[in-house]
Every structure is written in C-alpha cells, then in structure tokens.
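Usage

Read records sequentially. Each one opens with the input sequence:
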Amino acid sequence: MKIEKKLKNQVIESRWPETFQVEPFTMVIFGGTGDLSKRKLLPALFHLYQDGQFCKGFSILGLGRSELTDERYRHLVKEAVQTFHEGPFDENQWDGFSRHLFYLSGAMDQDESYAKLCERIDKMLIRTAQGTRELIYYMAVPPQVAPIVVEKLENQNLCKGDYHAKMIAEKPFGRDHSSAVQLNQYLRKAFDENQIYRIDHYLGKEPVQNILFFRFANSILEQVWNRHFIDHVQITVAENLGIEHRAAFYEQSGVVRDIVQNHILQLIGLVAMEPPVGFEAEAIRDEKGKVFRSICPMDEAPLDRYTVRGQYGPGKVNGQDVPGYREEEGIPPGSNTPTFIAAKFHIENWRWAGVPFYIRTGKRLPKRITEIAIAFRKPPLRLFGQASDHLEPNILLLTIQPDEKISLRFNVKFPYSTHEIYPANMVLDYHETFKTIAHDPYERLLIDCMKGDLTLFARQDSVEVMWEIVDPLIARWENIPPLHFPNYSAGTWGPPEADLLMKREGRYWITT
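and closes with the structure output:
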C-alpha cells in the first residue's frame, strides 16, 4: 500500500505543472492602468513569466489616458503585482519581466493614438520561427468603448494582413440580446470569429474544466446522469462581499447581467451537455450551445412563480457590520437594482426533461462559495421503517471555490445502532491529492489564447442565446418595481421566498 501511494505521488509530481512556452508576441492592453489590469491581468502575466511560459521575444504594451513614461508605468505595475499577486514576490524575476513592459499614452477615440500604436508595434513585435507576427489585443475597457477601439484598429490595418492578430473581449458581451448582436457586428467587421476570444474567467477555473473529465471519463456516472436517476440540480454562486466600489457598473448590470447570463449559464451548459465527439473547441462549444437552446423560455406566469429577487440591507458578515446596498457609496437611496436571485430553469430535451435546475446567486451572503449539487432520486422502498421518511438523497457536490473538491454524500448505518442511518461523505480534495495551489483562471485563459485554443471561450451564437434566456426576466423586473427592497439582511442566505421556492416542491438548498 505504501509503495502504491509513493508511486502515485511520483506520477503526480512528474506531470505537474504542464508548461507551454509561447512564441514571441506583443500584447496591447487597452485600459492598461485600469482596475482589471492591475488586479488580474498584469499579475497573471507576471506569474506566467515566473513559471517560464514566455520566451525572450515577448512584449506587453499598456495603453491609457494617463501621461506615464515606460518607467513610471513599470513602477505602477510593480505596486499592483506586489498587492494582488499571490505568493512571494521575486525581485530578480520582476527585473526581467519589467524590461518587456511598455506604455503608450493616448485617447482611445483619437486617430493619433493609433498612428503612434502602429509605430510602437512595429518596433517591438518580433517574428516567430514560422515568420508570423503574433499580436494580441486585450479589451480591458467598458463595453461601450470596445467598438471604438476595434474600428480604429481596423482603420490602421492592425487586425489582419501581415499580423496574426487575436482579440480578447471581457464580459459583459453587450447589455441584452440586441446590443450583443450589435457589438458582434463591430467585432466581425474587423476580425474573423476564430480571432475573437470572449473571456469568462469562470471557465478558466480548474474544477470547472474538470466537470467534463469527471463526467465522461467515468462510465459509472454516465449511466445515471439523466432524468431517470437525478431528481434535481442546484447551482450556488455566493459572495460575501458587497459591490466593492463598483457602484456605476453594478447599477447598470444587477445580479442577472453580472452572474446569471454568463457564469451560471456556462455551468449549466457543462453539467447538462451531451458527450462531444472530441475535445476540440467547436465540438464542446456545439454541445453547450444545444443546452442553451433547450432551456425552456419563461413568460410572465413562470417568471413570477419560479424566480425570486432580492437586495441586501444592513447586517453582519464575518462578525463585521456592513451597510445595505442603498447605503453603498455611489448607489441612489431608492435603487431597485437586485443583488440576489433564486430561480428554477427547465431543459427540454431527452436527457433532462422534468429535472429542475435551481440557481441562486447574490452579494453579501454568509460566505463565498460556488458549488454544483446533483441530487439523486430517493429509492422507492420502506426497508428501514420510519427511518425511510428521513432518508437523505445521495448528493454529488462539485465545489469550485473557495475550496476545490468533489464529494459524494451517501448513507451508512450508524455504528451499534439498530436502524439509524447516517449521511457520510467521500471527498476528493484537489490540493491534498495533487499537492498544488490554485492558479488564477486568467493564467490558463491567457495561455490558451496564445496557443490559439478557443475551447474555454464563449462563442457568439451561445452568447446571443444566453441573452435570449435572461432578457424576459430582466425586462419583467425592470418594468415591475419590487415592493419590499431591501428584503434580506447582509450575512443571510437571501430573502425567505428563496427557501419557499424549494420547500413548496419538497426540496431544500444544499450547502457545505
């Protein structure tokens, strides 16, 4: 047994981490001094450099309105990396990375800025061994700015031709279906679909990617992964934080645009999809698209009966007093923007007919956790007498954050009892098993873009269908103001109606 365990550990150590050294490239970050760049993007790029993923011929060019020299920009980025980069900061590694870091000051709506950009790109960009010029644009800018940038890039012939260009677009991909279509028209005028990388950082999380492998690499699961054995599915995306100085953004988005239209629907797609013909990008994205098109549209009656909205008021989170949403800085006193949703969806296809998919997500909940719960049907028997009335269903839990785990809840006999049933768990903990630390999902997605792998990026047809799913809900809530906002205290699991949504169907919310 000890020998077997030792061999397993040796295999794990020999296979981790998987590295890929990219060819020379230049990345242009529009919004290079913004919050996203400082908190996520630039620390992720530095970590990839530390891991030896970049060759010497790369360059990163931040573009923004601030008047900064290259040296001043490097200092700003260093402060951001020291603040937000997880793990020890290596001064020698930083010195090497910073020499590849540059800055260009300019207004994103001015032609002069793009003429300067052309000059800088031509000086920095190094051809690959195959003779290509790899150019990546990262749109770390508000959605309304992206079309302006794309149009200017196209006018300067920076999208195709001599450049092998890719464009990474941050969510939200529009504000509704019509704006998503319009945004795509701007993008497709300048780029081909296979040049556009619509990034959803949830898809870069290792446990999210593992859903496919866990499902399709284990034959015992595929036999029961359907309406005959599964009672229902729950997806919880809970945050204990508030809006964190993003008042303007959140007032325009709310919980449905911010989380449901993208993160939660992507998780539904991975759980519910059919086996793809292969692990190529289009095969996987095809199957997810079929799930989105199979989600039953809701009219007014189901929307009112099977959705619950909420907004947090003052309360306590982790023992600390926190303000209500309407008391947050920059929020209007009478705001009706929802910060919580619980809802029930149905997928009308052969595999999932009759199986409800319950979702809930919100701000200022008791803890931060993202979890998928697969609840199996109870056995139709009275073998254990009255104990059968309290028999817990078997539950498969896929925990995505903050821990990365897969656990199976099953029932056993309590020691030395007569018929007492006790629910127990079998748990796979990623960190304990693979001796790894969680990598930021941006790192995986950036490498995939550099490799030209579109698997973990959203495709436009799916983006449009996802908007079609949530647009009626958003319109209904915006046209009918809530009666009692705020309706849940910070630090609780949302309004009481969220529990009633489950209880009236004989179910309850599952959390670890």
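Summary fields computed downstream for this record:
- Residues 247-272 form the longest helix (26 residues).
- The chain has two domains: 22-170, 203-503.
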